[in-house]
């Protein structure tokens, strides 16, 4: 079976164009023979005459300002205030996109920025929601994922042909054997599926930025509940942020002409209130710990610290799953209302409305009032179960089908008819069917609370079977849900609940009094008496494709198959089928998927639970998350001088350091033959004072410190509890109570925190540790001429007898107070000069000026590495990693295992007991040639089988100009490392490179230069 | 983002702090610990799903290492306090 499948896929893909062409022609002929009024004549009529209605009471468009824009290369006109979707719909456009997998035509579905159907590309910005984005003059809008055009997508018939062979999870089942098949299939699949195209170039128009905001009470959602909450919280004197994703407040009331005055009044109060800051066109995409909110507004990311949150995000209308429920012309009832009221666009000419609540009746009434023919209003409920005066008057004017549900939409690229069927008393379908010609099929069967942010805030939901709604089970102290998102459907209850929620959160934030328990309970009880607005029904079985997930083209059959295959928990089902992982982030599909999963498992919705809702709630551009490049870099006091000398700078941890000043080899020679100076201001530099400094040094270093005499310097290694090397450096003793520690540049911050940790948890008695790293500049003056040079600038006694190796002196150099450490990682006579950072550049320039006659050169990190390597010195973090102990790293001489308790001792004793397997050791490459790159493998080759086995790796390697040879450090098995001169193989570019072990320093192995 | 209360500085965003891992007192006499005890200290973490006592360091603030009791599932922070030889609870 799998081979057949592969065959079909490969053949299908390679012959794509041939088949595509043939099928397209076939379909054209077929269509030509089936000129159906609703599908061809009506849209044509719309295109010619337009679908714009006369002026509506709450429309947002300004008919006096007209502009042009293009969609798929054709020009359209729009009024100011039009969204791309409303302008296109007004021009009779039905198809807005092609679906992700099957390339099926898709039209407007939700018109509220939730579903994936109207995603378009604007310039280099992909996945813009056409129903949210306002038209700008001369905007260039393109459809996404079309091959090659919206109307004639060649992949649609091919996918229709292939779809039986592409069940859920078919990649996992088929495209792994033989191995090469994925390489062939992947590019084809990627090209065939997907969304818009992201730009790879930097766009100068993009000015992503970030802003921090704060609020005592942050109200998310600017509908009646949110406005009411904001006003009451602000009335309690709390500082309020009111956030809404639309460009004006009012929420669902915006489409209610009768509520216009109320909305205007509420908005005016909000805008006039000094305690309320309103953010419109702003979408909260995540609620993180302790009410840390992320919100986007165009190219700006808001990071909001909310003390308390009122969530009034309302509801999202829930699609019904029936045959061909994705055809353009099948819309949510609220979507038609948005088009009608806000943009004065006629969503269709002949409508069938399918409902299970009073909201659907409002939809039908609105259509009727706008002069759109309502062919049928099919209500799932019993006639006896509902009645209102409004209903009765409408019933007299419209054909109402009580106890009916839709079973199928018909049409090729748009709806041309719908079939409805009556229900049995137990709710099952009868066999009778009624087919109705229409070009619009509206579904209003229920609402899903928009509660993703609440899930993120830790609210748990339970499913109320009777009401077919999710209800919060718990509520944190600093977060509250109110309004339609909390199942409150009636306006007066929303207003009351919002006000109480606002007061409650304001009071929790420390402003005003909280509502009494009885006030709160009263509203909660009242709203429970409301008639539910949601149907239990989610799927109407039939014979064609029924889509749950519009984003990823997942059908109910896919999910049923997945459950049968064992992916029967909702979380597994999500991962396997990718449902709820697309641009709608589950807003359209997750409730239906949970219902299906519950049904397939003969379990309840409550037991099935729901998938974890993670941020972002809506797709967010990576640019907004990245923002501007604000990464801080650290620079030394000599930075400008380095730049002025044309130094090539490199990133070293947080620092920018000169890698070299043009010729690192010459820099090495200058140090070995004359004198050089390097800026080592990046070192960690700590001052330790107090009577018991040796105590802490004995603990954190592996060697002895108690006996170190005043005026001396000692090298030390630090380990963690595991016995792993974490840092090294030198520490000097200035006097009885004052010490000075240096660490590696990389460890400057972390080692300070490390020692502080031990000091603050019991080892700090009689010691003060101060981080002076940024206070001092430091330079290492190295080379045989270092002493002669320095004598010109200081009175400090520098002769070997007065100031020997590993000693420290204080004094004035070039009029600057300095501390001199006579140490020498370069292997030459050298002085490390530490001075106040503010004098750094002066001293640096003085040294270079005085050194001119000796041929001084400044040297960078690269020369320093070569100099160190020639001495066989390791670099912590370069030659060691998180598994390197100091004994294996050739630092055994600096570990005094027999001394009192120190960090790493207990673990190192075990290392010694068990013996070493690997060791860090020096090597020379036998032949002249390329320098092996760091990280290369060291291998042993079995001469019979030619099999290679990795036995070690190269950690440092450089060409040494002093030795005229390639040298390095590497990790080798001890049996090789312990033999001076032992040969081994470095594997480089599929070729063996022979090297041999070298014990001791490569240069000046007895240290004569160093001590001179 | 969490809000932590530094015993010195009060409530601050967690981005000012560094987490120091769960509180694991070092055996007072490491050399007396047998291999099992020592490897438990060095390599094993309790990794609790629930209340955890842990170290925090006020890196971009006063430089205090202190302890916090945090619920690892909900990120609720019950208390923060200074370490003391007799005060680790
Ligand atoms: Zn602090």
How would you characterize the overall build of this protein?
The complex is a heterodimer of chains A (1012) and B (89). Chain A has 1012 residues and is an alpha+beta fold. Among the domains of chain A are: 209-316 and 449-528, FAD/NAD(P)-binding domain (3-Layer(bba) Sandwich); 545-628, BFD-like [2Fe-2S]-binding domain (Arc Repressor Mutant, subunit A, Orthogonal Bundle); 659-869, Gyrase A, domain 2 (2-Layer Sandwich); 917-1004, Elongation Factor Tu (Ef-tu), domain 3 (Beta Barrel), CATH 2.40.30. Helices cover 29% and strands 26% of the residues of chain A. Chain A is elongated. The N and C termini of chain A lie far apart (82 Å). Chain B has 89 residues and is mainly β. Chain B has a domain at 3-25 and 44-78: Folate-binding fold (2-Layer Sandwich). Helix content of chain B is 10%, strand content 37%. Chain B is built from 1 helix and 6 strands, in the order βββαβββ. Chain B has one helix spanning 35-43; strands at 3-6, 10-13, 18-22, 51-57, 65-71, 77-82. Chain B has a 4-stranded antiparallel β-sheet with strand order 3-4-5-6, with no helix packed on it. Chain B has a two-stranded antiparallel sheet with strand order 1-2. The longest helix of chain B has 9 residues, at 35-43. Chain B starts with a strand and ends in a 7-residue tail after the last strand. The chains are: A alpha+beta (1012), B mainly beta (89). The A-B interface holds A 288-290, 292, 305, 458, 721-722, 753, 756-757, 760-762, 901, 905-907, 909-910 and B 1-3, 13-14, 18, 20, 26, 29-31, 33, 35, 38, 41-43, 55, 57, 59, 63-65, 74-75, 83, 85. The structure holds zinc ion. The site of zinc ion (ZN) has 7 residues of chain B, from loops.
Brief description of this entry?
Chain A is 29% helix and 26% strand. With 1012 residues, chain A is of the alpha+beta class.
In angstroms, what is the radius of gyration of chain A?
38 Å
Structural class of chain A: alpha+beta
Distance between the termini of chain B: 25 Å
Q: Please, what is the average pLDDT of chain B? A: 92
CATH topology of the domain at 659-869 in chain A: Gyrase A, domain 2
Distance between the ends of chain A: 82 Å
The CATH top-level class label of the domain at 659-869 in chain A? Alpha Beta
Largest interface: A-B, 20 and 27 residues
- Per DSSP E runs of 2 or more residues, the count of β-strands of chain B stands at 6
Adjacency order of strands in the biggest sheet of chain B: 3-4-5-6
SS summary, helix count of chain A: 30
